[in-house]
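Usage

Read records sequentially. Each one opens with the input sequence:
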Amino acid sequence: MALSLTLLAILYSFSRLHLYNLRSQEKGMEVLARGRAAMALMTRKIREAGYWPSTGGAPLSGCARIRTAAASQIRVQTDLNGNGTCSDANEDTTYTYDANSRIIQRSPGGGAVVTNVEIPAGNAFLTYYGQGSATPLTLPVSDSRIIKRVRISFEVEVDDPTPYGKASGKKVRVALVSDVFFRNSE
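and closes with the structure output:
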């Protein structure tokens, strides 16, 4: 009888531990999915910056592939509908990392692209590189036309759902990094 109770206790403990691990993995996958969706949205929009079909690839008057290049913000422009302007919906887009609220925002369109964001120590949300260079450009960049690559780097985190994680304040964290090379040169 004592042996069967001991075996039941061991099975219960094993099942409970396994359930907590599954919950933690589920949170990790949720965080990864949110982060990857935000990264895909940003990389696609940055990659298409400088698309000027109405001028055969030459920049439009009053428009620039990169209008703002900062460590916590990038503003890109394009002429998606080919009407010769960069002011229509989704043609002038800004992504901003707000360290206080820990979100990455998109404008226009408002709202958060992703929440619970941290920037890894020693990194910037956005880093800019010139042609064939592994050394980041010094900000502020006086001429945005020399920017040929943008590195986006951030981490997304949520509280660990396991009892141990809750008690210790542990986080489930996923790091994402992507280098965006411009398709359209200026």
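Summary fields computed downstream for this record:
- The chain has one domain: 2-181.
- The mean pLDDT is 86.
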